[in-house]
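#struct-help
A.M.: can someone run this one for me? Single chain, 75 residues.
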Amino acid sequence: MADEISTLMSNSKNKSVLLRLRNNKTIKGNLLDFDVHMNLTLDDAEDVTEETPEKLGKILLRGDNVLIVSLPDET
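D.P.: on it. Structure tokens below:
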């Protein structure tokens, strides 16, 4: 199972992902990297929780704050 998740995440590098966090924030950005703890590095990240997105730039999200990761469709 962990290998499947790692493969999915690896295939999504440099693509746009949508994240739901424990604090009910929704973050969108390009996935740069991740680790076994699900710590994520995003580039061009924005907080899209509100109607007007807030630009965050390059960020590191600690894995235990991430509830849901929406990956792009594989084409």
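A.M.: thanks! The first strand starts at residue 16 and ends at 21.
D.P.: also worth noting: The chain has a mean pLDDT of 93.
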